[in-house]
Write a structure and sequence with these properties.
Blueprint: E1 7-8, H1 11-21, E2 25-29, E3 35-39, H2 42-49, E4 54-55, H3 70-77, H4 87-98, H5 101-105, H6 108-129, E5 132-133, H7 134-139, H8 141-151, H9 158-170, H10 176-199, H11 205-211, H12 221-235, H13 237-251, H14 254-261, H15 267-277, E6 287-289, E7 293-295, E8 298-300, E9 305-308, H16 310-313, H17 348-365, E10 369-371, E11 379-380, E12 393-396
Helix pairs in contact: 3-12, 4-11, 6-8, 6-17, 8-12, 9-10, 10-12, 13-15, 13-17, 15-17
This protein binds protoporphyrin IX containing FE.
C-alpha cells in the first residue's frame, strides 16, 4: 500500500506501521517518481530534522520550477521553508519580527466569532439536509478566513483567492496548467496587495512584513510575495486536517471526548495528542544529503532525497507507549507534528489556538454529533505532504 495514495481511512497508518516494523529507514519511490529514503523511526526522524547535512536546496525545491517562467517562480518560492542557512536564518528573523505572539493572541476573539458563525451554518445544514460535511463547512473555512484576516485580504477578493490557492496546495500532483494558471493569478493579486498596503498601511501582518527591518535588511519584493504564498500553503490544509482529523478522532473515541469535555483546561493537552495521533502533515519538505550521511546504520549517499514520515515517527512504539491508542491524558508527548530543528513550524501557536477553539466550540455546540458514515468508508486525499480527509460527513444522533 502506497502511504501517499488515496486510501481508506486508517489504511495509511497501517501501511506505515507495516513499513516501520521492518526498521526505521526505507527506500521508496515517491508519487512524484523520485526515489527517496524514508525515515519512520522517531529518534532517527528527530536527528535528521536537526542535521545540517540534510539540506532543503533553496527556491528550486518547489513544484514545476523547470516548466514555470523564472519570474513567477521567483515570486512564489523565495521563502524560508525551502531555504538553508544563512538565507533561512535571515528570512526567519525578519518574519518573526512581524509574525509575533501578540499578532496571534489578539486573533482569539475573531476566531471565536468566526467558529460560532460557521457552526450556525453547520446547524442550518444539519436541519435542512440531516447531514453536514464538517471538512468543507467548518474545518476548511476556519484557517482560510484566519489567514485572509491576518494578511488583510479584503472580503470581496477571498473567493478568488480560495480558487487560486487550491491547485497550489496540491503542488506537484496537480497538472502543470492548473498549477501555473493559479500561481500566476495568485502572484499578480499578491503584488497588487503589497502595493496597496504600501500606499495605505494597515494593522495587519502583511503591513508588518513590509515594514519589518533588521538594521538595513528587509524582505525583498519576491520574498514578500513568496511569504504570502507560504502562509497559505503551510497554514491552510495543515490546520484543516488538525480540525477534521481531530474531530474524527473525538467522534470515534466517545470516552476521550467525555474526558476532555469534563474539564476545559484539558483542551491544550488534548490538541497535542490529536496532533500526534493523526498528524496533519505527512512529511516536511523533502531534503537532500549534502554529503554521505549515516542513518540507522545505513550510509545514505550524497545527493540523495530523504523524507521523514511524521505520521510514522509520531506512532513509533520505541518512543510512545501504546502509540495507536488515543489517550488525551498522555504524559509522554513531544510529537513531531510541527517538525523539529530550524524549520519548526512558525505558525504552531496559531495552529494550536485555531485547533483548540474550533474543536472546543464544535463539541460544546453539538454534544450529540456522530459520524454519518462508517469510519472505514472515509477516504484520505492522495498527497505527499498532507494527511487530509476528503470529507467528514456528520449528523445528529
Ligand atoms: C496543525 C497545523 C500545522 C501543522 C501540522 C504544521 C506543520 C509544519 C511543519 C511540519 C513544518 C516544518 C516543515 C519542514 O521542515 O519542511 C512547518 C513549517 C512552517 N509552518 Fe506550519 N504547520 C501548521 C500550521 C501552520 C500555520 C497556521 C502557519 C501560518 C499561518 C504555518 C506556517 C509555517 C511556516 C511559515 C513554516 C516554515 C518554517 C521554516 O521553514 O522555518 N504553519 N509547519
Amino acid at each position: 500500500m502506497d502511504p501517499f495514495a488515496a486510501v481508506p481511512d486508517g489504511a495509511r497508518h497501517d501501511a506505515l506501521a507495516e513499513l516501520a516494523r521492518t526498521g526505521p529507514l526505507h527506500h521508496l519511490v515517491l508519487p512524484t517518481s523520485v526515489p527517496a529514503w524514508v525515515i519512520t523511526g522517531y529518534a532517527e526522524a528527530r536527528a535528521a530534522l536537526a542535521d545540517p547535512r540534510l539540506v532543503k536546496g533553496g527556491p528550486d525545491n518547489a513544484p514545476f520550477v523547470a516548466e514555470l517562467e523564472p519570474e513567477t517562480s521567483a515570486g512564489l518560492n523565495h521563502h524560508m521553508l525551502t531555504a538553508d542557512p544563512p538565507t533561512h536564518t535571515r528570512l526567519r528573523r525578519l518574519v518573526s519580527m512581524a509574525f509575533t505572539r501578540r499578532q496571534v493572541e489578539r486573533l482569539t476573539p475573531k476566531i471565536e466569532t468566526l467558529t460560532a458563525s460557521l457552526l450556525d451554518d453547520v446547524a442550518k445544514e444539519l436541519a435542512e439536509t440531516g447531514e453536514a460535511d464538517l471538512l468543507a463547512s467548518y474545518a476548511y473555512p476556519v484557517p482560510m478566513t484566519v489567514i485572509c484576516d491576518l494578511l488583510g485580504i479584503p472580503p470581496e477578493a477571498r473567493t478568488d483567492v480560495r480558487t487560486w490557492v487550491a491547485p497550489l496546495l496540491k503542488g506537484g500532483v496537480d497538472t502543470f496548467d492548473a498549477y501555473a494558471t493559479a500561481a500566476r493569478r495568485m502572484l499578480a493579486f499578491t503584488r497588487d496587495l503589497v502595493e496597496e498596503k504600501r500606499r495605505t498601511p494597515a494593522d495587519d501582518l502583511l503591513t508588518a512584513l513590509i515594514e519589518a527591518r533588521d538594521g538595513e535588511d528587509r524582505l525583498t519584493e519576491d520574498e514578500l510575495t513568496s511569504m504570502v504564498q507560504l502562509l497559505f500553503v503551510a497554514g491552510t490544509d495543515t490546520t484543516v486536517s488538525l480540525v477534521s482529523n481531530g474531530a474524527l478522532a473525538l467522534l470515534t473515541h466517545p470516552d476521550q471526548l467525555a474526558y476532555v469535555r469534563a474539564d476545559p483546561a484539558r483542551w491544550p493537552a488534548a490538541v497535542e495528542e490529536l496532533l500526534r495521533f493523526d498528524s496533519p502533515a505527512q512529511v516536511p519538505i523533502p531534503v537532500t544529503t549534502a554529503e554521505p550521511v549515516e542513518i540507522a546504520g545505513t550510509t545514505v549517499p550524497a545527493e540523495t532525497v530523504v523524507i521523514v514520515s511524521l505520521l510514522a515517527a509520531n506512532r513509533d512504539p520505541a518512543r510512545f507507549t501504546k502509540p495507536d491508542e488515543l489517550d488525551l491524558s498522555r504524559a509522554d508527548g513531544a510529537h513531531l507534528a510541527f517538525g523539529h530543528g530550524i524549520h519548526h513550524c512558525v505558525g504552531a501557536p496559531l495552529a494550536r489556538l485555531e485547533g483548540r477553539i474550533a474543536l472546543q466550540a464544535l463539541t460544546e455546540r453539538f454534544p450529540d454529533l456522530v459520524l454519518a458514515r462508517e469510519p472505514g468508508s472515509l477516504e484520505r486525499e492522495p498527497s505527499l505532504l498532507f494527511n487530509k480527509l476528503r470529507a467528514l460527513p456528520v449528523r445528529l444522533r
